[in-house]
Amino acid sequence: MATFITIFKNSLKSDRNSQRELYETYYGYALKIAFRYIPGYDDARMVVNDAFVKAFKNLHRFEELTAEESLLEFRFMGWLKRIVVHTAIDVLRKSNREIPEVPFDSELAEQHFAPDQADAGLMYKELICYLKELPPAYNKVFNLYVIDGYSHAEIADMLQISVGTSKSNLFRAKELLQKKVADFFETKKL
Prior knowledge:
Structural class: mainly alpha
Shape: globular
């Protein structure tokens, strides 16, 4: 199996096999990110595919080839993550829609997102479900701030809201999630 740096350099040269290998290697990672923003599996897959198209078109702009190979892969993952998040936000903005209520698909979660430990997997599934139950504005801000590490100023710019609204939405999202998690553990005690 080729190293990341070899696959990356060949992808820069538009080698389709290397691009396919890069896509297949990071597809699950990108889908996991997209699924936090886009509720439907098919829509999330569309976002991932669009993000990879953007990534391949702009691969030459990723100027990290001087970095150590071990760091290059992590930097690439961060770069790809940013593209997926922005693509998801753009899709939501362009369609001018809020995130609809979509029932949690536990089979999909097990297939792509379950951690190794059984009890952690159960809690992970519950947390994803709780995130999906948040009002759309809270969901987006929580994902962008807590999970993806954007600042409130960056979130405000991306979502076209004020910094104060971003902070308020995050506070309310945390309150709702804390209540849901507390209720979850209360029912586990019974």
